[in-house]
Each structure stands twice: as structure tokens, then as C-alpha cells.
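ligand=magnesium ion
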Amino acid sequence: MNPPTQSILIVDDEPSLGSVIQSLLKQEGIASTYVSSGPRAIEYLTTARHRVDVVITDLSMPEMSGMELLEIVREKWPELPVVMLTAMNSVSTAVEAMRKGAYDFLVKPCDRVQITATLQRAFRESERRDEPRRHQAVLAESGLLGDSDALRDARERLMRVAESDATVLIRGESGTGKELAARLVHKASRRRAGPFVAANCGAFALNLLESEVFGHEKGAFTGATVRKPGRLELANNGTLFLDEIGDTPGELQVRLLRVLQERTFERVGGKETLKADVRFIAATHRNLEELIERGTFREDLFYRLNVVPVWLPPLRDRREDIATLARHFCQTFGDRYRRPEAHYTPDALEFLRDQPWPGNVRELQNLTERLVALASDARITREHIAAELVREPGGRLSPAPSITPPPAVEAARTGAVDASQKSLQDIRRERDREALKEALRATKNNRSAAARLLKVSRRTIYNMIEECGLEDYKPPR
Ligand SMILES: Nc1ncnc2c1ncn2[C@@H]1O[C@H](COP(=O)(O)OP(=O)(O)OP(=O)(O)O)[C@@H](O)[C@H]1O
Ligand SMILES: [Mg+2]
């Protein structure tokens, strides 16, 4: 794992000593800058474009003593660790400097081992002191918006787990922000300078997926004309995001289990065993416990992945976030479609707040994009929204039928691989079937209660049950 780039400021009135330390650090791969006096150091710290991690300063210098410099740095840049360089006969002054807040001191002449050991400790201290600021910056950048307690809790958990190298399993319904959350973990982790690579474990046929993740050797199969690295290899020193892990075919689950256990793998058709220096984050909207029960997901893989589970709550359980998100998306798409004045009216925001949002944040985002793109007026009202939505059985929101794209267009838009050639209607029926089953399960097969839960009439629920072939369905206890 590469540490993030480090940078040191060396302050010494003797250029020869400065350059010795500089070249020593260079050999260790640490960037440094040398200045010859305290005032120059302050000027540098004030104007430098990058962060300085550690200052290392001589104690006795003519223009400004190391002690004076220390006091100024402590006041202006309190998080910056300062290491004092001192001659044998002035160790007591160095001790005094420690009392005044110096991080450590080195007695001249000092050797490479002493210098690097002290600096490594100072770096860690610098990272530790800088953590709150870095977290703020990562959070602000992450775009995982929302002030609800539920989202705050999830965000905090993500930030905490980011520090460790532990495997994370992000769970939540479709469109709740799982990928965004995975990127947040990567950016807040020590691997942030490395790559973030995503692999969709449900999108390809098995053999394609295998070579996609593990890579292949030349000649491994027909069409493998060159050696190709897999996502796992590309993610080296960084993070591999195993998306839709619940859809992973069985054979691939076995191979993934091995990588997670042993951190080694082979390319498809290869003999060489390669090391995977990778942090794993997996995500799924599926009920893995149920898949395990049905025998389609391996229990041992589940436990390997589920080291730190993080749940992202559905949007309907954190309605406080809806207005914040809606305003944010309005602004984003307003800028994109050159309609910067586009905004939801207060009444429209209230209306949005009351919707069921089965597609969660993604659905709100898509709806807002559509409304902003179509808006003839800067104000987006409740009526505009209502016109874009029709209700389907089960209270689902969906585009009005007149603008429903044919399946192929829909598949292209969502990037779904249309492997099974399912029609949009089939997909919808399947979704309804799942929702219906869930409602029957939740109500212990009470059809009237299920109707109320799904906000449809009794008559509709009977029709749906017939349409979905669930007449004889008995929910598991
Ligand atoms: N809290 C949030 N703040 C801002 N944008 C969000 C938030 N949550 C999700 N989004 C946006 O909603 C969209 C869907 O999010 P994302 O792709 O992370 O969801 P997902 O949980 O991975 O969905 P799926 O299970 O369908 O893959 C993205 O465009 C994302 O940027
Ligand atoms: Mg996703």
C-alpha cells in the first residue's frame, strides 16, 4: 500500500546540513523543501500550495531561533508537528522546546535510521491531527447528502470503517446510494491515492465475468489473443468494488472466496499465482440471508464479506432528506440544462415528500432531471410532478405510459445488459410479484391487509394475485 505523498520542510542556516537531510529523505521517497531561516519557513508555509506534513528545524539560527519559529508554528499551524535539530550541548533547550509543543527532537550528528524513524512517527502524528479536516473535506466532496439521523449514522459508520482495511458489505434497496457510499469509503481510506475499480458481478455471463475479474492469459479461450489484466489486478493498491454481489454465479463465488481468504489468485488460463493487495467493498440490494437459505449464495462467502455491514436506509424511511436532495438535483440539472433558475415550489417539495419512492434516490434524481429538462417555467409545481407520474399497482411510481420507452431503449438508458431479452412488461410483472410476495409475507397471507400495505383496493390485489400466479402462494413463516 502506498502511503499518501509526504512533504517535509527543513529549516537550517547551514545549507550543507540541509542538503544532506534532503538527499537522505529523497532516497526514502520523501519530498522535502529546504529553507535557510525562520522567516523564510513562515513565508513558505503561508504560500505553499500543498500541505506540509512535518517541519524539521535547527534550534540555533541567527535570524530567528528555532524556539521562536516553533512558537509561531504552534500558533498559526497547530496541527503541524515540529521536530527540533539540536547540538549535543543544548539538549536542555530541546527539552524546553518539547515542553513548548515540539513533537520530538534529534541530536546532531544524527544518522539515517534515527531521522527516518522520527519522521515516520511525526508523519503518523500529522495524519492523525489532520484527520478531522480530511474527513470534513471527504464528506463534503462525497456527495452523499442528507441530514436525517439514519443517513448520518450510515455516513459515520462508513467513515469509521474507512480507516481500517476491513471488508465492507453495503446493503440497501436499489438506488439508495450504495456505490456512492463505496466511493466515500475509498476516498477516506489510506488507499485513497490508489485506484477505485468497480466490477459488476451480475452483469455478464460466467466465463466473461471470470476473465473480467481475474483477467486471462493469452490463449486462455477462443478470442483471448492477448493477456488481459482483470479488475482485481487493476485495483492493486486500491479498492475493488464488487457490485451486485448477490447476483454472482456460484462458480465465481468459490473463486472470490479464495481471494478473500488467501489474497492470491490466478488469471484465467494462468499458472502464476498473483498477490491481491486490495480492499474489498461489496454491495447488493438482495436479501442475502434468503439467497443462502435457497442455496444460491454461499454462506462462507457471506461471512467473509460481512465483516462490517453498512445498511443504507430507503428514502421513504428518511423523508427529511427528500427536500435537500430534490433541491440539490434541481440545481445540478438546472446548471446542466442551462436552466439555473429552475426550482421546486414549497408545495411541490411537500408532494415529493409524500411519495413512496420505490426507486429511492435514483428515482428522485431521474424525475428531477426529467422535470428540469422539460420545464417551460422556472417553477416546478405539484401539478408538473403529478403529470409525470402515474400510479401502478403497489403504489409504484413510474413514467406516464405515453412516454414509456420500448424495452430496448429502456435497457440502453439504464445500461442494463439485455441478456435474457425480457420485455419491460415482464420485468415489471416480476417486480410486482416480488412486492406482492413481500406484502403477503408481512401480513401473514392476509390479502386485505396486504392491499392496505400496498395502497391498492382489495379488488386490485386479487387481480394481481391472479396475474402473478400467486393463488396458491404460502409465505414462509
Ligand atoms: N445521499 C445521496 N445524496 C446525493 N445523491 C445520491 C445519494 N444517494 C444516491 N445518490 C445518487 O443516486 C444515484 C443512485 O445511487 P447509487 O448508484 O449509489 O445507488 P445504488 O444503491 O448503487 O443503486 P443500485 O442498487 O441500483 O445499483 C446516483 O446518481 C447517486 O449519485
Ligand atoms: Mg449500484
